[in-house]
Amino acid sequence: MCQTANEVNVYIKKQNFLFQKVLTRIIILVLVILLLNIFQLEIKNSFYHVSSPLINIFKSSGNNIYNFFQSSFNFNSLKKENDNLKEENQKLLSEISSLESLARENQSSKEALENARNRNFSILSSRIIQLDIANDYIVINKGSENGVKVNMPVVSSQEVIFGKVVKVYDNFSEVILISNKNSVLDSKIQYSDPTKPVIHGVVKGKGNLSVYLDLVKPDSQVNQGDILVTSGLEGNLPSGLIIGKILSVNNDDLKPFLTADVLPLFDVKSVDNVFIITK
Amino acid sequence: MKNLIIKYTITTILFFVLSLIQSSFLPFFSIVGQIPNLVFILFYVILFFDNRGESFFWAILVGFLLDVFMPSYFGISIISLLVIYLLKKILDYFLKDIQGKYFIVYLIFLFSINFVIYSLLVYAFSLIFRSSYELSLSLMVSLAYNIILFLPAFYIYKFIARPDYLENQLKLL
């Protein structure tokens, strides 16, 4: 009888010990996670700082290997792509020539072109140090110490928009790409012919580096190959930054708006340097 | 003791290097936008052979590394990996009998279940904290990509860690 009571006591003590052990672990874990989040900016900044030389090595070797395989696999399709590019080039040349003739004839459009050429951005060059294609975001090597602020647009040297800065560390910043599901951009279709009405819409991210055009009036004349640019209606985004090219138009009578699949023109895999528009 | 310190140091460095490879090298080799999660694979291999409960420590360290390179708050990966740690223990208890008969099937099944649950957990936490982690419909592609790398990693680790593993088994006996 006494022995059984002792056994029960030992069992209860063991249970209490186990419970205390688990509880201590949980408390320590919660404290660690809290501390990590309080010093999140400092910890992530230090980690990026320490690992950026190694990341650069891995990134450039990844890029080289990718390019090598890409060129080997795509050898057969290169000729076809070249023909397409030639055709597209001819179309662009003819568009430029029509634009030039219109510019001579129309003073207002000439002024608009002048303005477009003369617009001045304050830009800051930076390097992509981390790609997260699955989540459509990148990390760049400029941060608050360089004057970067949240919501600043990030573009390529050809003024193709990549995305916006969402988080700023001392020496690094996180940028969500326009293809991120949380990204929404006010846009318009760029026509070389100024007599055509401007078509406004919203470019939304679909994930996996793809985007689509939404909220376009159903009677709008959207065509395959039209170029989408930023509208400039958003305070921090200048107008005319290139977004992408219309791939196909989906005009469903049941839907209140017209939508279109868009080929985004940014290329995170082959571009190393991007520019942050600071003003 | 000295061996243990060397083992932990090497494993920590390996986890760190793998997390860097994952965030800078592998995005060039994505399939439908999916890349393998090398850090999770190594964690799971270690978890599979763990008899001493040291995976609890690895879950925190690996979760920390995954959270550093993710656009989110700290803790999401740590808690998700701790859940996987517990889940693996529970599944082991219930599926012990079929382990010997169909080992490869058991291995792939266990890894798949844990990987899918881990992805769902990270996605659920990200929804709560409104971070930009995305759960793509191509989760299955991601799973296949990860299994392809998990199997060789498993056998390589088994080959390297076998003496240690057997030694622990004997101690238990």
Automatic annotation (TrEMBL), chain B:
Protein's recorded name: Rod shape-determining protein MreD
Top-rank taxon, per record: Bacteria
Keywords: Membrane, Transmembrane, Transmembrane helix
Source organism: Candidatus Staskawiczbacteria bacterium RIFCSPHIGHO2_02_FULL_34_9
Transmembrane segments: 56-83, 103-125, 137-157
